[in-house]
Design a protein that fits this description.
Nucleotide-binding universal stress protein, UspA family; alpha/beta; Rossmann-like_a/b/a_fold; Universal_stress_UspA; Rossmann fold; 139 residues; UspA
Length: 139
């Protein structure tokens, strides 16, 4: 029986589909929504402000807040509360690193901008191949 589900989310439609799938398929499970903020670097557009912040963790939380608020609103439509988490680093590595604490991962088939996909690679594919727990890829 699946009792703990990890749902990586960004601001893409596919990520929202994955969350909706997890909420429908596992209504009695504890669902954690995770948003991974890219490693702070002066070369990574959106992460530049995080790299220059005095409190990097607080800046990452602020950066992720809109995405997590939308995820909580989607869960509220199902009358379900979700836990949220923010990680910093390479998305696939951060997700795989947390996956072992869950029974399954539900992830959107792709997300983010074309530039993100070219620079970071296919996160869903990497998570699917390296996760220590079963992965459902939602289209």
């Amino acid at each position: 029986m699946i009792s703990r589900v990890l749902v990586p989310i960004d601001d893409s439609e596919m990520a929202e589909r994955a969350l909706r799938y997890a909420l429908e398929a596992h209504p009695d499970a504890a669902i954690t929504v995770i948003h991974v903020v890219g490693e702070p670097s002066t070369m990574l557009g959106g992460a530049t402000s995080i790299a220059l912040a005095d409190d990097i963790e607080a800046a990452a939380e602020e950066h992720a807040r809109d995405v997590l608020d939308r995820a909580e609103a989607v869960a509220a439509e199902y009358d379900i509360e979700v836990d949220t988490a923010v990680e910093m680093g390479h998305p696939a590595r951060a997700i795989v690193g947390r996956a072992g604490d869950f029974d399954t991962v539900v992830i959107g088939s792709h997300g983010g901008s074309l530039a993100d996909r070219l620079f970071i690679g296919n996160v869903a594919r990497t998570v699917f191949r390296r996760s220590p727990v079963p992965v459902t890829v939602v289209r």
